[in-house]
Amino acid sequence: MRFRTMLGLMMVALLWVNMVQAASTDTLVVGVTSDMHTMDPGVSSDNIDWRQIYPCYDRLVKYKVENGLGSTEVEPMVAESWTVSDNGLEWIFTIRQGISFGDGSPLTAEAVRYSLDRTLAIGKGPADNIGAIETMEVVDDYTLKITLKNPYGPFLQTLATNGAAIINPKVAAQEVDGDKAQKYLAEHADGSGPFTLVEWTRGQRCVLEAKANYWGAKPALKKVIIRFMTEGADRRMALEQGDVDIAEYILIDQIPALEKNPDIVVHRFPSQMVEYVYVNCQDPKLSNPQVRQALSYAVDYQGIIDHVLQGSGVQMRGPIPDGMWGHRPDVFQYTRDVAKAKELLKAAGAENLELTLIYSERRSTWEQIALVMQANLADIGIKLNLELLANPTLRDRLDKGDFELCLGAWSPDFADPYMFMNFWFDSANAGLPGNRSFYKNDQVDDLVRKAAVLSDVEERKALYSQAQDIIMEDAPYIFLYQIETIVPMRAAVQGYVFNPMLESMYNFETIWKK
Amino acid sequence: MRSYIIKRLLAAIPVLLGVTLLTFLISHAIPGDPAALIVGPKASKEAVEAIRIEHGLDKPLPIQYLRYMNGLLHGDMGQSIRNHRPVLRDLADFFPATLELTLASLFLCLAVGIPLGILAAVYRNRLADHITRIISVIGVSTPVFWLGLMLLLLLYRNLGWLPGSGRLDITSTAPPGITGLYTLDALLAGDLGLFWEALRHLILPAFCLSYVYLAVMTRIVRSSMIAALGQDYIITARAHGLSAGRIIFKHAFKNSLIPTITIAGLSFGELLGGAILTETIFSWPGMGKYVVDSITTLDFPAIMGFTLVASTAYVGINLCVDILYALLNPRIRY
Prior knowledge:
The complex is a heterodimer. Chain A is of the alpha+beta class. Chain A is built from 16 helices and 19 strands.
């Protein structure tokens, strides 16, 4: 009897419905796919890390918000103002006074110099973005002079990237074996941003807390919990239950069900993330532009967008996505034309072609897209073999040029067409760095290199525009589509601003909950 | 016995050495450049080269292996390539989660599997046997990811009886880490509420994980019990008029324990390696997920560290099982 009573009590206790206390209105919970790797802005090239790092630091400039929407233009943040010399080489920044780090020490020109210098010295991914810097000179406590190696059009934009975060120079005390405090900053945040990292439990969650003495507008949220939840269905259930406020990367086929739920709002925004196919221009089978054009004519772009993406994307028009300056709405766009494609293949003497498309499992849609392309190319008489590879293997083969066709995705690190035009087409970037089709056209090289060193936007636009016409003719990539970012959140979450430059990142400082 | 244990422990050394060598060779045979993975997708060639040198990836393989082994002998498992942390610290973070889940699953597996198996054997070919057979067949044939999702859907989302994924509620902070087992740590900290919360979070993943093993356990206990119950000494015991309970538990069950322990030991070793599907569905921060992430990013030191821990656990568990054999059956001597 005693056993039964105990069992009964246990059952009651088990079913004791003390569901997770819903987070209060000053706490925001975000359900994300995976744990971050590091908190060091000088090391990480990954938006998964930037999501936590960005709100903990300030930068010289920040992205403007216009009518509640994020823009790709920048405005003053820590830099109150700046001037640039006529030759575009010398930039003088006036630093805002009264900003302090978590320990109370003031943010000065020296802190900015230290931070940028540190990122450059570490020499990992983020250093490439600000690689144009030659020297920095602290003129006085609140004035910093930066001299560039050569005029560099996107320079100001690169200062809004995560790698340009301003770090408290006192972290130098945490250096071990000259590691520039990498060990320390990998797990700690020491910036002047609105939030700071208070907890990071590996594989489970990290907690950011609002700083009481932030120099800018005080955030409405006191605490942000980033919960690492691997499984999409799990994130969806937690969102529906109200355990998380924002759930990332819910599979497209589950979105309609969420849209019907009155407690949930599904936001959709055009992103700068594009997906495309690298066509290896150095491969003998594909070195003839006519063959590459035929491939571009064969693909059923709209079919892929309508059926694989269920409408959450738009076909790319030219290499620069819509929403980025330099995008040309009038540039030539390939559409499916089987007859034309066959004609081109015939003219090139490349009938009965057999090609292989490599792809990885990085994106859930790629398998389907590969199958659609296989059918599309069969229509023009090309046999397409599909080869699924592990991502590291794929990248290795990519870098060596050991492929014919390969599915890829790209998103810009800073808001400048340089991220597309120079990375993708400058032959000096062949391989993994960006020119993944090993495309080489001297005229294009010339145009994009010229555009990179100018600071006048109109002049640069004209050069990029000219290059785009040549590129569309050469067809070194099959330009598939620009993705729509889908962010489902509880209806109570207000003030979210999507910025295409800050994919998977959130403006915690201005979000609030009803 | 003592000399046997010492012999076994000594024999484990070449086994583990072999494991490190094999893992090292296999993980380096996978095409892919870890240096390129560290610097990120758009890095320049120079940046990749610098990282290769920093991590010693430019050295010939034998040198890399010797360097690794040298570190290992000094208690250094190297630094993870993807998060720049000592692997030992990563393992210390992720192993306890797996251990806690494994212990809970093993407990469920034994606590339910053994009685069911005995029941099935005693009532052979009767209703109880049929029911346990159905339970077992469902167990071995249900895909874990489906079971996990259905459990969450029903008990978390629809009924709200049990909490969702993770080791604790989203807003709760972990207890001070002494053992890394949240239930135990919460008890040690004297926080009963947190203990209860951690226990409730364990129920679904542990059930999900144990279900397959439970099915196997039930079948093994049943067949070895049937074999034991058919022995002459059982007939003798019956003839002596011993009670059914005494015959089943004292005589038959004890003798059917050897296969049961073998299976329990194997399951325990396997479970300790982490259960990737269960861990994924329940966002359980264990070794399974850790090693899969390590493999996809070619994080050699992490892969090596995991393999070492998993194989050491296997070797240790096998040794324990062998010792248990001798304790259970005095005829087994080493």
